[in-house]
Amino acid sequence: MASVARTNRSRTEEQRQQDLDKIQKYRDLDDQIQHHVKRSNYGDPALFQLTTKLLRLNPEYYTIWNTVGWVMALEGVAEYFSERHYETVLRRLLAFALGGDPARPRDVPAGASGTTPDEKEGGNTTTNLNDSGAPKEEADGDEKADLAADTAIIQAELAFTIPLLIEFPKCYWIWGYRSFLLSVCDAILPAGAARDFWVAELALDSKMLTKDRRNFHAWSYRRFIVSALESGAKNDGGNTAKSMTESEFAYTYSMIKVDLSNFSAWHNRSKLAPRLLDERGADDAARKEFLDQELELAREGLNVGPEDQSLWYYHQFLMDQIIALGVDGKDAKADGLIAPNLSLADRREFVDREVAEIKDLLEDYADVKLIYEALLEYAMAYRALGESDAADAANQDEMMSWLAKLKELDPLRRGRWDDLEKSLKA
Amino acid sequence: MAQLQDLPDELQLATAAHVQYIQSLDSRKDEYEYWLTEHLRLNGVYWGFTALHLLKKPEALPRDATIDFVLSCQHENGGFGAAPGHDAHMLYTVSAVQILALIDAFDELEKRGKGKAAVGKFIADLQNRETGTFAGDEWGEEDTRFLYGAFNALSLMGLLHLVDVNKAVDHIKACANFDGGYGLTPGAESHSGQIFTCLAALSIVGRMESVEADKLGKWLSERQLPNGGLNGRPEKQEDVCYSWWVLSSLAMIDRTHWIDRNALFGFILRCQDTEKGGISDRPGNMVDVWHTLFGLTGLSLLGYPGLDDIDPVYCLPKSTTERILGPKK
């Protein structure tokens, strides 16, 4: 729900009348659609136009998206996925519907009415389609024309939702409808042509993420598209999966460079890192090196923004990679770790160095509570790595002083610090 | 609770105004917004009714007319839509079950509706038997909101046996992240809303063993910002609704004392429209019934005086869940 400043809620008589007019128009549209739906009158092209109008007024009205889906799938979802029959029906129906709907673009001209360059990407897709030499069996003239018509319809539908998506970027149903359209592509287009739609969709997703870098719909959608694009079916049409881990990993870096606080990007990076190393066939030395570089990346950020939780969470993720191994390296699920075979000496060295670096931060930022939190966290981890009792005792005093600082700087979480104190003294 | 009395007048709960606001919601048919939000109607009834129960004014909405409306949203397949003529979906089906639980009307579902068994079947059929997760409807969108909704409604109706609980629990575990939180699908970033759905689902089936309570508690407690409000993810703005998602999650791992109670009270109460009733996302914004409920549940969970106790797992009054499920240990 978008937040809107509170205003005086009373209306003038004129405003009230305007509202009533809008309501009448809206309910009229709704009634007409329900009238068709009640009679299962999905074949009437007027229905498609009505849904277009209503969805522009209210894209949150999920039943109407379903109606559009039903129109597309016509008499049954089961048939839709399994029957060739669907292809012909959809084509006939939608071509007919769109023909009568001047509100929707028939084609997607570059730089047309929309507000983003995505539509241009849609246009590129058309070009790519022609160039791609679709792998489908030689089609006769009619089939080629049908294919072009299908492509145009799907493109028009995708274009229709773009302005809605820009206005309502957190509307589940719009994202859902786009993924439905992609599944239609897979069902009716040759593999190469369908793939182009998915590629264009990834570009759209990137655009949405430049508009709102934290939009979790867009991040989820991105992972969904990437995983589809990686599948064998989307590549040689067979079993060869083609990983996009390298390019997606690079993408997280490009997002982080723009905004260090983008935890969504850091999160995705944490998910991609272990996979990246596996796919690179990285040996232990390369893994250690990787860990080193990532720690440095996080620290570089911390040097300028130690108040940023995103950076600390990523730093903590990396430290967990080291700490989780435990003293003998056996009590951890080494599976999926960045550097599963680090020696105990290496691990102590890593922790030692990070703690020293973090302590250095205090010289410039003595009042940043997240620094003390990290120091405490890692000091406890260091204990778990089997430090000597003597060092422990020295450490204890330091830890209590950090805790005292936390209580002073962060009174909101007093209860947590009290609990921590109890466990440290235990 | 001594400190509460020290709060200035504008930080007292405007109970009467909130009751009036909720009562007025269905009389706004001459407002365009009323029609634009019809797809939330059944949720809205649940939000409003639950809020009234917390305010100890359960009789402020008519029980019989509510039952009639709820049942008028039910489809042949057992599922409920947002309003008559709207398609059946998990989100509304759960609200319907919660409302009927709240006003003790499951018997009406048997007498005049399609019956519990049909509702249970509608929900159970939405489980993905391979991965254990749930879709919202036949179109197939899946996320942990629907899994939680399914567990919530099915357990209230005593029908959890209709689904594969172990698979669903495995799916939740797959949604866990290094920070102790959960995302809406495996691989997704931790988000307070999804953390609530995952923890509550695990609580319902008594399978909290995999939860990293300390780690998660730290993350959740860091959601409180200097103004007392809570955000949903790192480096995001505060919003009253997170008073519920974050706080109920902290309650499920026994760590509500890891944030500052009075600071949150102050934030929620500053979001009230003390004159016309209702609570908004942030101070000075337009109120709505969703934020009104989640402001009140936040206050209730922290023991604000004069409010009924909320169950952090079901988001229903404790008196309701105890009547149906028996007292909690």
UniProtKB/TrEMBL annotation, chain A:
Transmembrane portions of the chain: none
Name of the top EC class for this enzyme: transferase
Leader peptide range in chain numbering: none
Region ranges (Disordered): 105-142
Gene3D superfamilies linked: Protein prenylyltransferase (1.25.40.120)
Catalytic activity: geranylgeranyl diphosphate + L-cysteinyl-[protein] = S-geranylgeranyl-L-cysteinyl-[protein] + diphosphate
Pfam families named in the record: PPTA (PF01239)
Tree of life domain: Eukaryota
Enzyme Commission code: 2.5.1.60
Keywords associated with the record: Prenyltransferase, Repeat, Transferase
PANTHER family in UniProt: GERANYLGERANYL TRANSFERASE TYPE-2 SUBUNIT ALPHA, PROTEIN FARNESYLTRANSFERASE ALPHA SUBUNIT/RAB GERANYLGERANYL TRANSFERASE ALPHA SUBUNIT
Protein function: Catalyzes the transfer of a geranyl-geranyl moiety from geranyl-geranyl pyrophosphate to cysteines occuring in specific C-terminal amino acid sequences.
Family statement drawn from the similarity comment of this UniProt entry: Belongs to the protein prenyltransferase subunit alpha family.
UniProt protein name: Geranylgeranyl transferase type-2 subunit alpha
Organism of provenance: Apiospora marii
UniProtKB/TrEMBL annotation, chain B:
Function: Catalyzes the transfer of a geranylgeranyl moiety from geranylgeranyl diphosphate to both cysteines of proteins with the C-terminal sequence -XXCC, -XCXC and -CCXX.
Comment on bound cofactor: Binds 1 zinc ion per subunit.
Cofactor requirements of the protein: Zn(2+)
GO MF entries: transferase activity
Signal peptide coordinates: none
Pfam families linked: Prenyltrans
Taxonomic lineage of the native organism: Eukaryota, Fungi, Dikarya, Ascomycota, Pezizomycotina
Reactions catalysed: geranylgeranyl diphosphate + L-cysteinyl-[protein] = S-geranylgeranyl-L-cysteinyl-[protein] + diphosphate
Name under which the protein is recorded: Geranylgeranyl transferase type-2 subunit beta
Family recorded in the similarity comment: Belongs to the protein prenyltransferase subunit beta family.
Keywords: Metal-binding, Prenyltransferase, Repeat, Transferase, Zinc
EC number: 2.5.1.60
Segments forming domain Prenyltransferase alpha-alpha toroid: 13-316
Gene3D superfamilies from the UniProt entry: 1.50.10.20
